[in-house]
Design a protein that fits this description.
5-stranded antiparallel sheet, elongated, Porin, 14% helix, disordered N terminus
Length: 287
């Protein structure tokens, strides 16, 4: 468990070490992250569960980019008219109120008015997502004659391409499978993997994943041939190519519910005569 706690602390450090400063906008004091610094600056943060975006002109004035609804429940898209005004009428076609789209737009403007401007954001930039999960597993790649299922918990840091609908991502995952009275085996696993979202929509995605490399710290207790209780501790490194499937369902601007069948089969591992039961549900949020 100490290993699981350590990786969670590292993930939280990544989340909170993103530089931010205090600003006062229309009488409201806000902690904002500075994303772009140029002729036109982009500031943002997730406040009370909602993304909020701001632009700062070279005279220091800050305006919020809004997209409120009218009495007919139609979006007014105020952010588009404001940015069009601030950028001298630069095209707002396909502009969306998302971090990725705003960064592209403002970088394009800053580049057009300042030949020395060096965009902070590149097309190849990445974003991160932190997740936690819990579920059950029958430890499909370990001898388990009675097919006993035990609880497990996990955490992961996912890194993906900065685009509106990312398809490719890599992940670092830590998980712990607990022992039970009927199956005295537990393991803490750290893994490196890859995901491909073969369905990638704004509100949900479905993906396949491969665990490319794993390190397991395992403990097992059993009765040997002399009727003696034996406990062994092992550390193993594998390149197992474990295949799984999953889905992320968007429940907010910044958060997702995730369902994952993490270990269907391993290309280089045997399923020990038990069909895999390795199912978890969790929560993810963008960093």
């Amino acid at each position: 468990m100490k290993k699981v706690i350590s990786i969670l602390l590292i993930c939280f450090a990544l989340q909170f070490n993103y530089s931010q400063e205090s600003y006062t906008v229309n009488g409201e004091t806000l902690q904002l992250k500075s994303e772009i610094d140029g002729k036109l600056d982009l500031l943002w943060n997730v406040i009370d569960g909602q993304y909020r975006y701001f632009v700062r002109t070279d005279d220091g004035s800050i305006s919020e980019l809004k997209n409120t609804k009218d009495s007919n429940n139609n979006y007014k898209e105020e952010y588009k008219s404001l940015l069009s005004e601030l950028t001298n009428g630069m095209s707002i076609d396909n502009l969306k109120l998302t971090l990725y789209s705003l960064k592209n737009y403002i970088n394009k403007f800053n580049t057009s008015v300042d030949s020395n401007y060096d965009p902070y954001f590149k097309e190849g930039s990445v974003q991160m997502r932190l997740g936690f999960s819990g579920g059950v597993t029958n430890n499909p790649f370990v001898g388990n004659p009675e097919n006993i299922k035990t609880p497990m918990i996990g955490a992961e840091l996912e890194v993906f391409e900065a685009s509106e609908l990312p398809r490719h991502s890599g992940f670092l995952q830590a998980r712990h499978a607990f022992e039970s009275d009927d199956f005295q085996y537990n393991t803490t696993e750290f893994s490196l993997g890859y995901r491909f979202r073969f369905i990638s929509k704004e509100t949900f995605s479905i993906y396949g994943q491969f665990k490319l490399a794993t390190v397991n710290f395992s403990n097992a207790t059993f009765i040997d041939q002399n009727s003696m209780e034996v406990t062994i501790n092992t550390t193993s490194f594998d390149v197992p190519f474990i295949f799984g499937i999953g889905s992320d369902i968007k429940i907010g601007d910044n958060s997702y519910i995730t369902f994952i069948y993490g270990e269907l089969f391993g290309l280089l591992l045997d399923n020990q005569d038990n069909f895999s039961t390795d199912i978890a549900i969790g929560y993810k949020f963008n960093l």
